[in-house]
Model the fold of this input.
Amino acid sequence: MYSASALYDLYESKFSSNNFNSSPDGLYAPVNHIMGIKGKRIRPMLLLMACDMFGGNVQQALNPAFAMEVFHNFTLVHDDIMDNADIRRGVPTVHKKFGVNAGILAGDVMLAYAYKYLTDVPLQYIPQLMQLFNKTAIEIFEGQQMDVDFEKRMDVSLNEYLKMIEYKTSVLLACCLQLGAILGNADEKSAREIYRFGLNLGLSFQIKDDLLDAFGEGEKVGKKIGGDILLNKKTYLLISALNNASSLQQAELQQLMNEIDEQKKIDGIKRLMKETGAYDATVSKAEELYRESIASLQAINQPADRKALLLEMAEKLNSRDY
Done:
């Protein structure tokens, strides 16, 4: 088996060069901008680790791993446009630097490249990879629309929120792991368990992300703290605060959600998230989902040493502060 650093180096050595050195520059400069902002490589690493865990050919998994990184970044480009976000990973977002039209078109071509790299594998794997990826992509787009719809509603339930983040975030982590399992020739039961591992890990990951958006440190997180609060996004935090608030706190929350002064709005809603117990409830839910994800990983019929890298990755995601 490969070490985590060896997998990372293998991936970086293949894709650190300019993979979009094409013309017209107006199309590919925005693509290179977002792809050049070095992320955590979580999704490609999960795919490669899963493939390696089941004894697959990691070299054959490199192109699908890159496909998932390209696809993920495509969703970020379009999400940032929809959220009117200024900063992504500490640098200007694509649409702020190049314009909205360039951002839309850059995302479109990145989706096409994701399919190109995903299918650059031995022929026998393509039907399964395509079926899983298409299902995942549709769910992600549905989750994004749910997220947008929720901004206009005050009656979003915690279950609705969990379904939205399952589609918008979790299914891609689960997809990467199952793609790796397919390329590693895993049996069906193991492929299902590793998908569940990714699904609950993704739910925990997104709830932790919501916590960091409100209570993290801006320099570490790489974006403005309180962005979700300013947009009145129905996160686990805000829904819990609305559910738990007294009548007086409800009135104050409603007033703050319409507050024009951005810092006053952020500070006030964060205070109420603490006072209503929403913060503690959100931390507890993230931990519960994390424990469920680890249980699914442990249920996979592989020796403990072959699951060690995925366990280590899960622990890093769970303890992150950025």
